[in-house]
């Protein structure tokens, strides 16, 4: 089933105009938290994908053991090696608070790993992000983290979770989804049980679900769309069946988390009034970003596969992100639209 035109129209509204009216930073400042001794590619793919989609600035918050490698991949990334195992918790907390206050979105999980100190800092970062009402994307080992401690994300409607097949099964079990729930309804059930977080279930068809009708929906959601309770109490599931490539390889999920992160950063700029008419409620932005990121990532996978076939690697997708954006949302929004204000 094609994505409804009404949703595509709303996504277009949160894409920053290219007409010379915005200054640096008003098209999104993205943070990626991840990168430890064994994992340097994943945070790079997430951070660079956000830039390639059109975010202005992309920061990687990582361990010093990963910093030099990530810096060497691209001079366009701003790398902060502050997640030190031998540094006091208080020092890291202070650094994180200062850094996150300057960002529009935090992508957590790519290259995070499961070392105790990295998981501890990730819990801290998520707590700070909630305090600051940031949009967050949770992937990979950040999903492992919240699967063990559901209250970390429960009720936080500014969060987008992006599980693959294995992560989705684990998350379903942690959330207590009944095995009797039909397959296509499970993403919505997880969202409901977790109080309205957006769940992007990756698969042959991506399912994006948001359900704020359950008892677990937090009053915290009122920060998103104050005074609009009717819009908050909704259940919505969107199927993204845009054709993707036939080759799956490690790192494609990191590209997705980066594109969703970029669109959430745009959503935050839209919410703050940098552009647009403000007619889209903030409570809707996570779902729109998840749908948009899914559509572009799947399209770039298809384009890269057409060029590389069986030899496709994730890096082949990066040059296709701009072309994919143009195909999905129009060349005018990619190359510049002087008619939009």
From TrEMBL:
Keywords: ATP-binding, Cytoplasm, Lyase, NAD, NADP, Nucleotide-binding, Phosphoprotein. GO terms for biological process: metabolite repair; nicotinamide nucleotide metabolic process. GO terms for molecular function: ATP binding; ATP-dependent NAD(P)H-hydrate dehydratase activity. It catalyses: (6S)-NADHX + ATP = ADP + phosphate + NADH + H(+); (6S)-NADPHX + ATP = ADP + phosphate + NADPH + H(+). GO terms for cellular component: cytoplasm. It is found in: Cytoplasm. Its EC number is 4.2.1.93. ATP binds at residues 202-206, 244-253. (6S)-NADPHX binds at residues 111, 164-170, 254. It is an enzyme of class 4 (lyase). Its cofactor is Mg(2+). Residues 7-328 form the YjeF C-terminal domain. HAMAP family: NADHX_dehydratase (MF_01965). Catalyzes the dehydration of the S-form of NAD(P)HX at the expense of ATP, which is converted to ADP. Together with NAD(P)HX epimerase, which catalyzes the epimerization of the S- and R-forms, the enzyme allows the repair of both epimers of NAD(P)HX, a damaged form of NAD(P)H that is a result of enzymatic or heat-dependent hydration. Belongs to the NnrD/CARKD family. PANTHER family: ATP-DEPENDENT (S)-NAD(P)H-HYDRATE DEHYDRATASE (PTHR12592:SF0), ATP-DEPENDENT (S)-NAD(P)H-HYDRATE DEHYDRATASE FAMILY MEMBER (PTHR12592). NCBIfam families: yjeF_cterm. This is ATP-dependent (S)-NAD(P)H-hydrate dehydratase.
């Amino acid at each position: 089933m094609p994505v409804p035109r009404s949703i595509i129209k709303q996504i277009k509204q949160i894409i920053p105009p290219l007409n010379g009216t915005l200054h640096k930073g008003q098209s999104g400042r993205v943070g990626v938290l991840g990168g430890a001794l064994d994992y340097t590619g994943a945070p790079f793919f997430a951070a660079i994908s956000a830039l390639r989609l059109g975010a202005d600035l992309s920061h990687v918050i990582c361990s010093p053991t990963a910093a030099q490698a990530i810096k060497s991949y691209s001079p366009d990334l701003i790398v902060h090696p502050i997640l030190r195992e031998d540094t006091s918790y208080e020092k890291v907390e202070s650094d994180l608070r200062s850094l996150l206050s300057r960002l529009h979105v935090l992508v957590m999980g790519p290259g995070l790993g499961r070392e105790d100190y990295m998981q501890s800092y990730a819990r801290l970062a998520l707590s700070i992000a909630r305090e600051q009402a940031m949009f967050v994307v949770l992937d990979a080992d950040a999903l492992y983290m919240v699967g063990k401690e559901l209250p970390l994300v429960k009720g936080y409607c500014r969060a987008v979770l992006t599980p693959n097949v294995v992560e989705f099964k684990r998350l379903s079990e942690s959330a207590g989804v009944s095995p009797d729930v039909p397959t296509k309804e499970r993403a919505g059930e997880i969202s409901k049980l977790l109080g309205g977080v957006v769940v992007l279930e990756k698969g042959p068809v991506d399912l994006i679900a948001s359900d704020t009708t359950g008892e677990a929906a937090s009053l915290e959601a009122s920060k998103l769309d104050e005074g609009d309770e009717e819009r908050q109490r909704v259940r919505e599931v969107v199927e993204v069946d845009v054709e993707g490539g036939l080759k799956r390889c490690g790192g494609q999920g990191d590209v997705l988390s980066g594109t969703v992160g970029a669109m959430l950063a745009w959503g935050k700029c839209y919410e703050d009034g940098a552009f647009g008419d403000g007619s889209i409620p903030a409570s809707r932005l996570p779902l729109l970003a998840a749908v948009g990121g899914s559509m572009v990532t799947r399209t770039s996978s298809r384009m890269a596969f057409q060029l590389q076939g069986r030899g496709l690697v994730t890096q082949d997708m990066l040059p296709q992100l701009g072309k994919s954006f143009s195909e999905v949302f129009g060349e005018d929004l990619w190359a510049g639209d002087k008619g939009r204000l």
